[in-house]
Amino acid sequence: MSLSPKELFSLYLFSSYKTDLGRLRRFDASIKERPPVVDYKVVISSDDGLKAWINAIRTWGFCLVDGCPPTSEDTQALIEQIAFIRNTHYGGFWRFTSDLASKDSAYTRLALACHTDTTYFTDPAGLQTFHLLSHTEGEGGASLLVDGFRAAEILRSESPEDFRALCEIKIRGHSSGNEGIAIMPERAYPVITTEEIHPKQPPRVSQIRWNNDDRAAMTGFETKDIERFYRAARKLVEILRRPESEYWLQLEPGLVLSESYHTVLKGQASGD
Fold this sequence. Notes:
Elements: H1 5-13, E1 37-39, H2 40-45, H3 47-60, E2 62-66, H4 72-79, E3 112-115, E4 127-131, E5 143-147, H5 148-158, H6 160-168, E6 170-171, E7 175-176, E8 182-183, E9 189-190, E10 192-195, E11 204-208, H7 223-240, E12 246-249, E13 255-260, E14 264-268
Parallel strand pairs: 1-2
Antiparallel strand pairs: 2-13, 3-14, 4-13, 5-12, 5-14, 6-9, 7-8, 10-11
Helix pairs in contact: 5-6, 5-7, 6-7
């Protein structure tokens, strides 16, 4: 078979070769009955196990690894089965607890609404991994996962104008409060990023950036756009908070969570 340059270009531009997002499956609260999980020993010892772990993340946006020894060294070695660890102003691999060592709500026992992290980077972290190494003198602190792509599609269906607003209005995130730290992306970005997959099909959601705690002030915007944004944001949050959207799980030593922060939002319940 031979293709003309026009046909070849079209094949690339509108085919699954361009992106892997077509593999993503949506999830809701019902995934609690059968979440994606792989065995640590299989992952750490075989290419097939590693492939199963990566494929689960690519399919669902997250995956659990069961049976990891609850040490920093073993957790880091597990993460590095996938790739190198990206350094940020927090470091590369790091341990933290609710001691406010960093001026960040993650370093407290407060409940956190579902969000994506590092919205203040031009290129937000794509994959984050969490391991609760110890939880012997407390209770609570359950983790929350919400499918951001599912929420965006519900928004598009129930309120197309609000969906357009979060695709069109570009805002900035920021990280500040710690000495010597003041980070913002090189430009503003929309909450919902989409990509064209075919001229006759609606654009497909390709990334979610939502963190109300890290959102910078909307200075320099026209009043009508501020009103559009807040109306749309209110609707999105209402969808994210629906019980059927929320998958709650209690992490424990030995159970590792890896998730895509381009597609899945994470939160947590308050803890003692």
